[in-house]
Amino acid sequence: MRKQENPIIDPLTALGFEETDVAYRKVLPWILALFAFLGSSSVVAFIMYGILVPKEPEPTASTFPPVESRRRPPEPIVQGNPIEDMQKFRAGEEKALTSYAWRDKNAGVVWIPVEKAIELFAARGEQTPLGGYAVAPANPGTEA
User: Fold this and answer.
1) Distance, CA of 70 to chain centre
2) Rounded to whole angstroms, what are the CA distances from 66 to 16, 60, 107?
3) Quick one: how far is CA 57 from the chain centroid?
4) What are the pLDDT digits (tens) for 6-60?
């Protein structure tokens, strides 16, 4: 005999919704089959790896010749002394950052050292590109 349900207590059952979410007897064989497939695939992959991968690696010779036997690149050599060139470049950059020079004498535009430009910018109290305001250092000659 069918059990009488009270539609006021269980309105979803009265509307025809299912009482259970999953039919375990139908899902369980699929889950077991999935795990059996994964296990057997792992065993087959392990066996194939053992067959196809050699036990001992083959010795390999270096593909690059030793440094002594390498030929110099053909002429012209573009940079004959790169260390000296870099020292000259850095000295020129340092001079440009720490000295005064005319950029446009007719317009009255002058290059000034970076440190002096920072001090002038801070003394004016202008807004920085990040939105804050520049503050003059307490002792311009010393570092914090």
Assistant:
1) 36
2) 83, 15, 60
3) 34
4) 556 567 677 777 667 778 888 999 999 999 999 999 999 999 999 988 777 666 6
